[in-house]
Structure formats: C-alpha cells, structure tokens
Amino acid sequence: MTGASAPAALRRDLNPGPYSPRFCPQGETVRQWDERQLVARLLPRIPAVSPFVKLDRGRVHRELDRKGVTLMLLWQEYVAAHPRERIWRYTQFRKHYKVFARRLKRSMCQHRRAGEKLFIDFAGPTGGLRDGART
What we know:
Blueprint: H1 5-14, H2 35-42, H3 57-64, H4 71-81, H5 90-102, E1 129-130, E2 133-134
Antiparallel strand pairs: 1-2
C-alpha cells in the first residue's frame, strides 16, 4: 500500500459495501456507525492471556529454611501442583523469589526478659569425628 493506491485501498477496507460479511451486518454501512462501533470492528479485542500462577513467596522462603530444600526442588513442586496452568520457568521463579528476598528485613528483634529463655546458636550438622579427626 504505497503511493496513490493507499487511499483507494483504505476506502475499500473501511466501506466494503452494505452486504459485506467482513464488517457490516446486512443493510448497514460504516458511515452509520458511531465511534464505539468503529473501534470494536477495526481494533478487535485481543483475548487476555491467562496470568501466571501466583507464587507464594512467603511459603517458599519458609521452606528454604528446612534442611535439604532447594529452590529447584520448590520449583518442581510448583510445576507439579499446577499441571495445566501458566507457570514460571525456573529462571523466572528464581528471579521473583530473589526480588522478594532482597526486600526482607535482615534484623531479628526479640522482646524478652533477662533469664526467661536460653538461646543456643546452632551452626547446623557437622562432620563426624573418628580418632580425633573429622571425617
């Protein structure tokens, strides 16, 4: 559609005739439509894409505190729980969780009276000892 043929082609598309099944119901012309009808016919709505399944970031964060749990394992559970829905691939899953984790406060405030509770710092599982040396 270049040059002098463009206006003719545009007129043909906008007013194809009163009996054209493309735009007009029988007996109508484009000139009789108001702006709402023109927009509806010329710019049809694109069907909305179903959104991705929401990630429960708080649950993922709590699960990661458990021994042996990884983001890959949690993503596999996420995929298995939503077999026919739009889900994030692993990279997006990880990215959305990391954005969430960066916004968390890193401090822990504990309100207690002195001597009420005993807190022990536990570094996790350690290697075994055999004959005085770690194995």
